[in-house]
């Protein structure tokens, strides 16, 4: 009888505490999907294909607002640009993997899977790196899918007058607040928020508020950080 790798189980255990944050996030994603007119099946398919919390919620909101597909996809790309840094950082540990394993690893790449894996690799050179990563990433994926479906079922069964339109914005606020650790992040948040509001009020077409605000906010944060570094 085949045995399960101990490193894979270690990855599952390492990701366990993080599921406490993933589960409610998945529930909100499911509720938001049906609130915007997606079926439960569509919500699951969307969650399986995208598998990226923040960008998934943003895409759902934009689809609900009838934004052009190019804007929806572009917004997801901008939000997920950070994964390029994760990929570059973890790639040396996966250099000897097959192309199929690398493709699977790229699909399972999340903030949480990257964080627990890179920490383990730094302190234990004997770890089966892919098994550990797969244990963490796959368990996060499974909880995300289950809770998304649960949220979609919950949302589809709620009376429309209850309204859950506030759910997605609250999750974004919950993600945002812990990141405000210095002047640069504060400036990025403030400028991005003001620009997004200004774009909406100005009636700029194609729902470009997220993309424009993200780019300008990042530039503002970089400017503040650069000025602080020169001081």
Automatic annotation (TrEMBL):
TM regions (residue ranges): 12-34, 41-63, 69-94, 130-156, 162-180, 187-204, 210-228
Family matches, as Pfam families: AzlC
Superkingdom as given in the UniProt entry: Archaea
Subcellular location per the Swiss-Prot or TrEMBL entry: Cell membrane
Principal location: membrane
Keywords: Cell membrane, Membrane, Transmembrane, Transmembrane helix, Transport
A GO BP annotation: L-valine transmembrane transport
A GO CC term assigned to this protein in UniProt: plasma membrane
Annotated InterPro entries: Brnchd-chn_aa_trnsp_permease (IPR011606)
Membrane protein topology class: Multi-pass membrane protein
PANTHER family membership: INNER MEMBRANE PROTEIN YGAZ
Family statement: Belongs to the AzlC family.
Descriptive protein name: Inner membrane protein YgaZ
């Amino acid at each position: 009888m085949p045995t399960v790798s101990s490193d894979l189980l270690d990855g599952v255990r390492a990701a366990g505490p993080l599921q406490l944050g993933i589960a409610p996030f998945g529930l909100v994603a499911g509720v938001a999907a049906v609130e915007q007119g997606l079926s439960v099946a569509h919500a699951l398919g969307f969650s399986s294909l995208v598998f990226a919390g923040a960008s998934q919620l943003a895409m759902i909101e934009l689809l609900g607002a009838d934004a052009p597909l190019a804007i929806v996809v572009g917004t997801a790309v901008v939000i997920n640009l950070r994964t390029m840094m994760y990929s570059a950082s973890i790639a040396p540990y996966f250099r000897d993997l097959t192309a199929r394993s690398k493709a699977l690893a790229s699909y399972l790449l999340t903030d949480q899977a990257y964080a627990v894996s890179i920490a383990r690799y730094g302190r234990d050179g004997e770890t089966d790196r892919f098994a550990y990563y797969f244990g963490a990433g796959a368990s996060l994926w499974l909880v995300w899918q289950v809770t998304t479906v649960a949220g979609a079922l919950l949302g589809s069964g709620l009376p429309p007058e209850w309204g859950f339109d506030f759910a997605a914005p609250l999750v974004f606020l919950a993600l945002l607040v812990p990141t405000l650790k210095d002047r640069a992040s504060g400036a990025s948040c403030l400028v991005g928020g003001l620009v997004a509001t200004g774009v909406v009020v100005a009636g700029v077409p194609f729902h470009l508020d997220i993309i424009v605000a993200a780019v300008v906010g990042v530039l503002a944060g970089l400017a503040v950080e650069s000025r602080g570094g020169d001081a």
